[in-house]
Amino acid sequence: MREWYGDCNQQIYLDYQASTPMDSRVISAMGEHYSVSFANPHATDHALGWAAHKAIEDASAKIAGVLQVDADEIIFTSGATEANNLALLGLARRALPGRRRILVSAIEHRSILAAARAAERVGIQVDFLPVTDEGIVDPAELMERLGDDVLLVSVMAVNNEVGSLQPVKALADAAHGVGALFHTDAVHAPTAGIVDMAEVDADLASFSAHKIYGPKGIGCLYVRRDLHDRIEPLMYGGGQQQGLRPGTLPVPLCVGFAVAMGLMAGAEADAERKRIATLRDLFVERLRRAIPCVLLNGPRLVGRHPGNANLRFAGFDAYELLAMMQPRIAASTGSACASGSVEPSHVLRALGLSIADTNASVRFGIGRFTSSRDIDEAIAVIVGTANKYDDGNKVMPRNTF
Ligand code: PMP
Question: Would the pLDDT of 401 be above 50?
Fold first, then answer.
């Protein structure tokens, strides 16, 4: 990891799928819960405890309302990594002898892939679902692999690297057809406009606050009520959250998560997604016009997460290109969670990209606080840097640039 301690003011943040800045409405709602309602929300003997408990109840109810589920079906976790682990390992550890197979897509986040590997150690068979070159799981491919020995199908609603939107309802229907459960890593679903879990028909779904302009360190697993006793907790303690995830809940984080989730539904949120998609389309179009060797990885822009642009700078080393753009542009090569490791993105590889093309790819994420001026400036910096890179490396076709 390179370190940089300079002035951040000149930076253009284009890494919204790695994390989002907190919304000021989230921060101000959290504020008073750090001071006034500091009491333990599980303390039952005094009014301060009741007040903190009420704040948690309100937060669960608000999140549940947006997701169209019930408040007691929301289990707070430290984030989506924990939610994904709780879903897969929790179910695996209580799996009955006749259902011991889990199907996951090849482009899942590492917290699903690693949890699936860990489930293998308790005797679960894990099968991987291939994806198309647009990063989509074909329900027909799932059907072929389904059987009455399948415990769980887990497919993310929206991919974090290429922004592909999965046909989650069709996948859930197929899973249910053989009596299997359906889990979706829905971390990027709210920013893509997918919040209604009843519509998706997921039995379990993972969310993370810091991907929706909320605080880091909080997320949740939605678990259908009748499945609660089919999940073995990852930790044991004071029995909070129906014993599924014990530990004292962080009231300010839960409140902040709920405010952030509340901002994901409604007309304002729809308008925001349209604005972001327009900026993203402009960004891609202008960059492709200025640098002809730039190609779009994954799905077409229509039907893709509105803020995602995964671009391949054919012939470039994306890591070097981004390094040259520091400190001006914050974007990432592959998934941020895998950064620090030099392994090429497993997502781009699963879409059929060569190692060279994978290593030439950059994910740009546009979001709530991106302005059209940011886009103008980012284009200027990226084009200028690509020129400079080409002066030294001569990777672009001579007469096109
Ligand atoms: N799933 C996906 C699709 C993600 O993008 C991330 C964050 N990179 C996670 C899970 C993990 O989320 P968290 O940071 O809340 O643990």
Answer: no
Residue 159 CA, closest ligand 1 atom number: 3
Give the atom of ligand 1 at the shortest distance from the alpha carbon of 188.
3
**CA–centroid distance, residue 215 to ligand 1 (Å):** 13
Q: Is residue 91 classed as helix, strand or coil in its secondary structure?
A: helix
Distance 206 CA to ligand 1 centre (A): 9
Predicted confidence at residue 390, as pLDDT, reads 87
Average pLDDT of the chain is 94
* Distance from the alpha carbon of residue 241 to the mean position of ligand 1, in angstroms: 22
pLDDT tens per residue, range 255-303: 999 999 999 999 999 999 999 999 999 999 999 999 999 999 999 999 8
Exposure string of 313-322, with b = 16+ CB inside 10 Å and e = fewer, is bbbbbbbebb
Ligand 1 binding pocket, CB closer than 6 Å: 79-81, 109, 111, 156, 160, 185, 187-188, 208, 219, 336-337
How many Å apart are CA 74 and CA 96, to the nearest integer? 25
Within this chain, do residues 375 and 351 fall inside the same structural domain, yes or no? yes
Q: Domain of 198: which CATH number? A: 3.40.640.10
Residue 394 confidence class, pLDDT cut points 50, 70, 90: confident
Same domain, 272 and 249: no
Q: Return the active site residues.
A: 337
Cα–Cα nearest to 38, from 256, 254, 260, 252: 252
